[in-house]
Amino acid sequence: MLIEGYDSEDLAATLLRQLKNLAHGNQVDAQEVQEVAHEAEAFTVELNVVWRFSGDVEERRIAGGETAARHCGEDMEAFERETVALLHQAQTGTALRQPFINSLSEAGRQGLAQSLQETVFHRFAPLSVQEDCPLCQGKGRTTCRRCGGVGRQTCTTCGGAGQHSEQVPEYRDGQYSGSRTVQHVCETCSGSGQMTCADCVGAGAVRCEHCGGHGFFMLTRDIAARAVPEYTIGTTTCFAHDVLDTLLMQEGPDFCRQKIPLDLTSHCPNGVSSHLFAYSGRSIALRLDFTLNRALMKGNTYTCYAFANPPHPYVRPAFFDDLFALELDWLADAVPLTGIVKRSKAVAFFYRHAGQPVLDSVLRDMARTPDHSAAALAAAMKKACQGFISTEMAEELASYLNRILDKVSPTHAAGVWWLFAAPTLLYATLYAEAQMETRFADQPFFAVFDTAVRVVLMVVIPLGIAWLGSTLLTLWRRSKVPREYWQELRDGIIMRRLLRTARNLGIAAALYGALAAHDLVPRTDSVWLNNIRRTMSEDICPYMPTRGCENLFRLPPEPPPQPETVPEPATAETAAEVTVRPQATTTQATVLDEREKARRIQQFLARQGYQLTVDGHFGAQSRRAADDYLRHGSAISLDTDATVETYYRAVFGLPPLETTTAEEEN
Q: Backbone dihedral region of 215: left (phi > 0), alpha (psi from -120 to 50 degrees) or beta?
């Protein structure tokens, strides 16, 4: 059936073939897409383009610049009048715009291609004016700030006196009798007390910094006449009229020119500053009812509206919602949107359903596109379905496909990064705090530098190994997937984020350690760090093939405690001295009570990694920690009723009390 030259039967068959090709392989065959009915009608398209004319000014100010073709001297009022006149001419001058209007009229329907952007149809000759520099008042030079404009300064050698005094010794009969003051002329200023100003070299003025010594600025204006298009589009169709009008307005005049045979019907002025171009054309609109002959979809009829030749759909029924409903239900059960996705189920869906044209196209687009936001994924799904899917279905299905793609073609090995990054950042943070706490008070600059270097090496090396391991593992895991589905590796991005995190944690820990070094915040005494070191050195490092682990987690040497000293009997030889045990040197006597000894034992054990409260009360917890330390460190076992004195001497390696007493008696 012909409608104004259009064969509606042929157009309906073309649209149906387009739908069959799109649906084929996506749960249905092309033969299952069947036409129910179709209807066509001719309609008129009216497209009006209104060109609005205006002037545009670009201004530039150059110190000492050259005059333009039209120069107003120093008359700023004339310069402003000329500017206003040119802008008015650009907006209302009919003779000025006539060549532009003639070119659009001669182009006919092809002139619609220019309706997408602004057009500069005339440029006036540049206009300039000279204005004096406000800082130097047009002189090009300003008063020297150093000398205040006098060109000279007070001599810095003699202070302006022009001479300086000197004490000269005097002698009488060959004997020194005193000194006298002698005045000498200042060699720097030759006795004037003044020196030439170094900035202005005696001139009293220097070149103006604002205008560069030119004394004026050249203000130049480039004025152009612009035409800005505005368009309206309307149709007379009865088939989803509002939807078609909205589509044509969104796509613009050039899209209409490509789809509809438009002709320029008339053009005329539309006021003093605009011109109207009217285009009109005839096209055909088509309504096609079709169904999918599938067991689960029998009875569902879809209606598609299209226009132009070949048909361009503008009302697209979401039949892919029904085609992928079963797949979405399976994905909802097998692939959770949060949590861990089982690789077996992801691989099963990939190899079973990725062969479908639409899903395959979406997966390939996801692999090529680094933007995996919800909006971008939904747009990729709608593009693959050519709009025959609802936005909600596209967003939900795309989110599942994204998780499946991440599983079969991962971008990184999260387990490797967690295995290396978490302990590395924890240990580096504790290490930075401990180093600053113990060393910042005595050597602040060296402590900062040394800690920074050590922490950088401590972080970069393990994270570099994690980067390499993650990359190799990721490449191995995706080796069975075609390269078209390989996503871009994200190990570099993760590395940068972890380095920034390490930097922030290191700075925070170092600041805390520096404050703790001056007792401004509570001290940690490296308890947590030494606990980690103790666990690693005793439980893990012995099973390592190299000694690097032991060197890395070796506990720092404990400084020897100040030994208890007791006073010697008062004798003639020792009346003013006491003997220090166990050292042979003599020092000031210091007697530690039982509470202080218990506190020192607790403090020492806490630094070795034991969880203790340093309070001076030597209870059951402190005894268990001390017994454990002595058994592992020195193979010493004390009685259950051993005193604090006995523990103190055993922990710090002091001679037993009985041995000390026997030596004194001898």
A: left
Give the number of domains in the chain: 5
> Same domain, yes or no, for 192 and 226?
no
Question: Same domain for 107 and 238?
Answer: yes
Are 434 and 398 members of one domain? no
Query: How far is residue 523's CA from residue 441's CA, in Å, rounded to a whole number?
Result: 13
Two tokens, residue 534: 């103790």
Stretch (H or E) spanning 570: none
Cβ contacts of 604 within 8 Å, gap of 6 or more? 558, 561, 651, 652
**pLDDT tens for residues 510-520?**
999 999 888 88
Q: Inter-axis angle of helices 357-368 and 391-408, to 10 degrees?
A: 70
Return the closest-CA partner of residue 311 out of 251, 384, 243, 260: 260
Hey, is 519 helix, strand or coil? coil
| Cα-trace Rg, the chain | 46
- The residue from 263, 286, 309 where one domain ends is 286
Please tell me the total number of residues recorded for the chain in this structure.
666
**Residue linked to tokens 């539309």:** 270
The overall average pLDDT reported for the chain is: 85
Angle formed by the axes of helices 391-408 and 343-353, nearest 10°: 120
Q: What is the pLDDT of residues 121-151, one digit of tens each?
A: 999 999 999 999 999 988 999 999 888 888 8
The verdict on residue 306 lying in a domain is no
Domain end position, chosen among 173, 207, 241 = 207
Q: Give the contacts of 24 (CB within 8 A, at least 6 positions apart).
A: 30, 357
Shared domain for 637 and 511, answered yes or no, is no
31-35, 197-201, 330-334, range with the lowest pLDDT: 330-334
Domain that holds residue 496: 414-542
Determine the pLDDT at residue 660.
Answer: 47
Q: What is the pLDDT of residue 159?
A: 84
